[in-house]
Amino acid sequence: MKKLFAMTVAVLLLFSVLLGIPAAYGQAPETGKTLDILFSHDTHSHLNTFTTVVEDEETDIGGFARANTLIKAQRAKDPDTLVIDGGDFSMGTLIQTVFETQAAELRMLGYMGYDVTTFGNHEFDYRSKGLANMLTSARTSGDAVPDIVVCNVDWDAMEVAGLTEGQQLLKDAFAAYGVQDYTVLQKGDVRIAVVGVFGKDALSCAPTCELKFKDPVQAVKATVAEIKANEDADMIVCVSHSGTWDDPKKSEDELLAKGVPDLDLILSGHTHSRIREPIRHGDTYVVSCGEYGKNLGSLSMAQKADGRWQVTDYQLIPITADIPADAETQEVIDRFMDTVDEDYLAQFGYTKDQVLAENDVVFSNLKDLGKVHTEHNLGDIIADAYVYAVENAADYDGVPVDLAVVPSGTVRDTYARGDITVEQVFNSFSLGIGADGVPGYPLIEVYLTGKELRTAAEIDASVSDFMTTARLYCSGLNFTYNPHRLLLNKVTDVYLVKDGQRVELQDDKLYRIVADLYSGQMLSAVTDMSYGILSIVPKYADGTPIEDFEDVILTENGKELKGWDAIARYMASFEDTDGDGIGNVPDYYSTLHDRKKVEDSRSLSALLKKPKIIILDDSTSAVDTATDSKIRQAFREQLKDTTTIIIAQRISSVCDADRILVLDNGRIDAFGTHEELLAKQGVYYRLWNQLPGEDTL
Fold first, then answer.
1. pLDDT tens digits, one per residue of 401-416
2. Which terminal CB of the chain, N or C, has fewer other CB atoms within 10 Å?
3. DSSP code for 399
4. Model-level pTM?
5. How far, in Å, CA of 255 to CA of 269, rounded?
6. Computed from CA positions of residues 14, 20, 22, 25, in that sequence, does the dihedral angle turn out positive or negative?
7. Alpha-carbon distance 307 to 309, whole Å?
8. What b-and-e string marks burial along 545-567, b requiring 16 or more CB atoms within 10 Å of the CB?
């Protein structure tokens, strides 16, 4: 009886949320067109309610069955509610392991009555074949599925170059499913055009995507012009997988709002942003509700006299335990989940509910990894797991792992206190697929020099504030950095740790590194961001550069060693300290161990000691070329471990630099070595070929 009473109260509370909260943006006009919209994005296969840490509190949150309770209640209030999704509906839990065969995520969106979605970068994780198979499975299931829109796939450019096998697979699958640039929906008396777009950063985060894309802003602008010319639309909505950032120059969906002012609403996915109040540029609103289905976005809009729309109510509704799960929806989810044990986990010897360890440690959460730039125990335990799994594999070759590296972008969830199950471990490291076609990114091994390991530490210290997915968590490598030092010069100490003892790095020695496949494939993005200054070249044990990271995948008895399985094995190895037959997470992880130490000092000695970078700003312009040459030679001989950045107007001062960046009228004209720049025959080439004494930029 108490349970029935509690559920009745919860339902009443739920309907009060949907029906009784006064508009926060002013009441809609008594006459005129109005529209209610529900939205989500970046749900990442989180069909079920899950336990995680939110606002420093462990809680059960999310779940499509609870979300559908809200959707059904809203549709009972307004059957013409528009329900949209911003992409990355897949990749994040065990249900993704049947992505190709079941298409559970897309079918669940259809089951709940979503009208439209778009592609996110993680829809491409299983490569072209995997995405094509998923679309086919969804289409042929007989279930209702949402429209998919994306306007900036550049089929023309790909066809001119000749379609690859993967591109052809996707073109055929898109056509069969009915993927379009935009779709037009009628909701009551409101005619809505919904256009989709795939962002620049999303593409950079999709190393297995074979498609080429047009500039997002220009493509949306052209599509909106087409809509205005051919469709009698009252409203134009964009479902965008581009994202928002604090830096307005990089905030793609804000740039989209400014660049295409005819858009009325942009649903912004990709960056997992939780926009508490709509961002407004002109008459265009940008909204986001956060990741993993933790919230359902809700807004109401009213058409103004000039034909544009205003937001009259906006809420991010937390999907919490006080919202009852819709029983029928949960039954559908359970049927999908029942396929996971047999179709996927059995080959690893696990079941999804199997308890691997008991945990009393408070682990960092995902927000910590992105916002607090220091060591985190969540990164520590995953990095340690890599080392354990490799050195305890059945066919271990006896070569010890010098260090393991875990970028924060590969970590997808934390571990709450209580039982840690196989499902929770998989969800914490759920991305990708291996060369074997089996879900889960495998571990790889590469070799780096000691000098490159110093560079890796600097990537974390200097680059990861701009690219938080590059935050590195290591097992076997400790470093100290000072956030107040100059960019690319923040790390003050780097060393290996062996059996608890400090071991100094040798610059020319090769060290064995273990990471995951995705991290290897994303290295180029870090190099590009630093214009090649922070360059790392992964190698084989003999020093030969690696061209294809799939060649260095680690295996056990011929099968890929998956990253999530490495974590599961490590968890299962823990000592049973309370005698109940299940291992316990060691107290070691309740404290930090100087793996990433922050030296928060602004003293002159702290800021200037051990410089890794010296900047010479036109400092040799007053000397002749012979003296200039002697100065540069002295720097090379006396400061071998220091990067020298030379700002010069004289070409002879920089021609022997490892990399040269040419600026022309304040813009980057070219980048490369002396020989590469001459071959381009641009500004640098013309200046080099001037008469002696006139080689100034």
1. 999 999 998 999 999 9
2. N
3. -
4. 0.78
5. 14
6. positive
7. 7
8. ebeebeebbbebeeebbbbbbbb
